[in-house]
Amino acid sequence: MPVSPLIVNRRETVERKTILFICVHNSARSQIAEGLVNALYGDRFLASSGGTVATRVHPGAIQAMAEIGIDISGHHSKSIDVFEGQRFDHVVMVCDDKQSDCPFFPGGKDYIHHAFDDPAACTGTDEEVLACFRRCRDEVHAWIEETLVRKILELAVDKFLFRFPAGLYYSEAGIWVRFEGLRARIGLSDFTQQRNGDVAFAEPKEEGTQVRLGDEVAVVETIKVNLSIPSPVAGKVVEVNGDLLTAPELVNQDPYGMGWLAVLEVEDGEAARGALKTVAEYLALAKVQAEAEVLR
Question: What is the pTM of this model?
Fold first, then answer.
């Protein structure tokens, strides 16, 4: 029975966009893309993948994805023939430079061709080959985020303009959360960093620190105020942004990118998402707070 692209949850009913990723062997690039979309953005997209012929899912792809907490070991390689008669919102061809190398699927509303180097073509030691799969994974992830996911909502209040990427979740304290498999990357929202002033010091908790929801996960000092940052999720700190030690201004300059604070290994992803706000919910809250501050 085919999976319906209609999701119903406690907040809203969302019609998910369907995506078919295509490469020649449906072994690496398209499998990685399918796994990333369904694991990270499954609330908005339903991804499938196929190729000219069914082969196997490359072990390097499985390992590279497992490193970021996404399990595609249950995937199997498919010919696009299995999708005959189906319609997709996006058909994305990820084959190498010549678009003619990719099989054509006639059931797309929108066609995109973006070439990624085939990691299965890499040679060398096991570690060198795995490095190719990691690079492919990261490049595909960045492209998906930029092309299919990232939509920036803006809030203008008085002379101020605040930006809110739609692909993130937000806490009431103004901390953004990007779920990456079993992990959550966090930072200060554009609204939070602007309202508190230029950052002079930022120090997340050490790697290995276990925090509960609401526990202090970082300290941020600005020219206006010292902030104790409450963790928007429960989990263990597994990575911190060391660049902030010498360049704390990154929090102001690039709050959703290079200015991130920490990465946590999440204990319960579903519960974590349920406790956070969507971009629309947080934008509404920020609007009320910003307008109240302007009226002071």
Answer: 0.54
Domain formed by 152-295, architecture:
Beta Barrel (2.40)
122 is catalytic: no
Tokens of 90: 């996006």
How does pLDDT run across 273-284, given as a tens digit for each residue?
A: 899 998 888 988
User: Half-sphere exposure (CA, 13 Å, Cβ side) for 247?
Assistant: 11
Residue at token pair 């492919």: 136
- The domain made up of 6-149 is a member of CATH 3.40.50.2300: yes
Alpha carbon distance 262, 154 (integer Å): 25
Bridge partner residues of 88 (DSSP): 108
Q: Scanning the structure block, which residue is given the tokens 């901390």? A: 175
Is residue 136 part of the annotated active site? The answer reads no
What are the residue boundaries of the structural domains of the chain, listed by start?
6-149, 152-295
- Asked if 95 is an active-site residue, the reply is yes
* 102, 122, 132, 136: the active-site residue: 102
